[in-house]
Amino acid sequence: MGTLHFLADGFSIALQWHNLVFAFLGVLIGTAVGVLPGIGPISGVALLIPVTATLTSGLGPEAAATSAIILLAGVYYGAMYGGSTTSILLNTPGESSSVVTTLDGYQMARQGRAGAALSIAAIGSFIAGIVALIALVFLAEPLSKLALQFGPAEYFSLMILGLCAVSGLAGKSMTKSLIMTVLGLLLATIGMDTVSGVARFTYNIPILYGGLEFLTLAVGLFALSEVFKNILEPNQDGELAKIERILPTKKDLKDSAAPIARGSILGFFIGILPGAGAIVASFFSYILEKKISKNPEKFGTGAIEGVAAPESANNAASGGAMIPLLTLGIPSTGTTAVLMGAFIMYNVQPGPMLFTEHPQIAWGVIASMFVGNMMLLILNLPLVRIFVKIIETPRKFLLPMILAISVFGVYAVQATTFDLILLIACGIAGYFLAKNDFPLAPIVLGLVLGPMIENNLRRALTASNGDYLVFLQKPISLLFLSLALLWIIVPLLLKLRGKNVLVNDES
User: Fold this and answer.
1) pTM (2 d.p.)
2) Which Pfam families match (predicted)?
3) Residue 507 pLDDT greater than 50, yes or no
């Protein structure tokens, strides 16, 4: 069966009424998450994992996993759409990848062109999302077939590359991000060793034999820590710009066409790279447009190209980031690491076997992203004025809601007092770590990849009779390890030479 046949099967799943509802809820909540400053996609996805577990409780295991991932993926790319709204109207990015949109978007709003900026951001996001999805459709199967050729040594090295890539570009300090990565790997070792049966770091506490629950840590670190941050460090919102005409003029469309095309392609390829993410894509596309423009001086004063290019790039990057997750089982950003944790919660292992063992999930999710992008275009053009109202939601209503979803969501899945205590401890730890510039995404990545790294390390060493050189003797493994080393060394050398290194601030 060809790729298009698989995609057609995916559409038959994505267009089932309950999956349409899940996709709609995902993109609706994602847009709201993007619109609200301070609550990024990573917090939104983490917060909704326990909610999906409750919503899909009446479905079979395969159908439940499909519907849950459809909703969570909708939150991820929906947040990319919504992030531009506050950047343009309030000069405050809703999520980190929309930072660069504030430069020209807010200037356009001050000139009375907020509607044009918002509509171009929505159109650019839609086109970029579709471009990234078409590329995902045609690259997913060949890449997963290639990955099937990998042995344990290649997988071990690939996961080390994933860890180094995200750690190398996460946060302002590489040392702090590496500390967080190691902490995540250490937390992953807690519990009963499945091979030897030895209890590790459990201190005779029975509840620790099963290890720490990924869901509790993710919700605590990302969602609850945001609640503490908003309570302890309340932000003063700026003045909200008014929206007049929503639809862009012919000149706006003409001026934006080429930046949207370039932003979509650039964003997609940057999104595939481990660790780069949407924020790096949006900055690079903005810099590219400014470099090739005949009038670079107009950037920063309300140039529509300065909105079209970064907004297209960050959406294309979120589509591109799904490729390493679905085909190789390697998350390339913090949000995809949380998504991978959700896959594993449903006993589904992302990677090359996903397309052969669970084609319903793989193609159902990909097809739902086409449907979700269409829903987002409809939501973000005529209904943009409604989403603007969300910005005005008082924090005294929003924060208790997030707190309640976090606590009840974790308790509904785990049903232990220990997990509630762990949730609050992770929330407090997440707040203080983020306050001191320790990135949180590498912890989750270490926690998710830790058991797989250990498993593949053991298998590779067993096959080679304990010879560690096996990782250097296999060419693909050697290539991955060399790239991992470069990913750490190159930013370090650039910093030592006084160069600025663009980091992925998603965490």
Assistant:
1) 0.81
2) TctA
3) no
